[in-house]
């Protein structure tokens, strides 16, 4: 989830040590700021329980962060979005750590229409199932935006201010959840 200090129409001048330019594919926009990444445990009919929350520069690739921090966790099934499609890496992870990453099916460039139509039904069902399991983490991010307004950091003017904004709003949101 992006934490936006300013849109990319301007030059980002705040907290350059921890921010840079990134792209949010969900919102279809370039921005300056940082990203909040979360690894959570699935809880049926509830928001996921965050196991780890990490802040990075906006330009950090989600797959690269996953490889660095979470790829060696053993005996897990992870559910990710299409950015996590990397068959060779995840086959190795399955063999080494008995963990797997399930993602929606990503279209293959250059595939003929006949093959696309042949696989469409199974791919759509599988992608829908994975997306349904992934939905609660998106709901967690939406909840953080609604309850703590964590995404909007345009009034922040320093690195300390941005750090306080991010961690303070995150703490406030979870205190609200407890009470």
From TrEMBL:
InterPro entries: Transposase_11. One of its GO terms (biological process) is DNA transposition. Residues 19-173 form the Transposase IS4-like domain. GO terms for molecular function: DNA binding; transposase activity. Pfam families: DDE_Tnp_1. This is Transposase. It comes from Wocania arenilitoris.
């Amino acid at each position: 989830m992006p934490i936006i200090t300013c849109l990319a129409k301007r030059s980002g001048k705040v907290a350059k040590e921890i921010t840079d330019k990134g792209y949010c594919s969900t919102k279809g926009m370039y921005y300056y700021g940082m990203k909040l990444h979360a690894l959570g445990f699935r809880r049926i009919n509830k928001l996921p329980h965050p196991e780890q929350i990490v802040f990075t520069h906006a330009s950090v690739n989600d797959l690269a962060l996953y490889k660095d921090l979470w790829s060696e966790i053993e005996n897990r099934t992870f559910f990710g979005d299409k950015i996590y499609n990397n068959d060779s890496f995840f086959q190795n992870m399955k063999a080494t750590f008995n963990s797997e990453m399930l993602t929606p099916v990503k279209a293959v460039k250059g595939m003929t229409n006949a093959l696309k139509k042949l696989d469409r039904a199974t791919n759509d069902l599988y992608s829908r199932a994975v997306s349904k399991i992934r939905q609660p983490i998106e709901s967690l991010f939406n909840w953080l935006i609604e309850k703590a307004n964590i995404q909007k950091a345009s009034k922040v003017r320093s690195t300390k201010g941005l750090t306080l904004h991010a961690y303070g709003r995150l703490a406030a949101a979870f205190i609200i959840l407890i009470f």
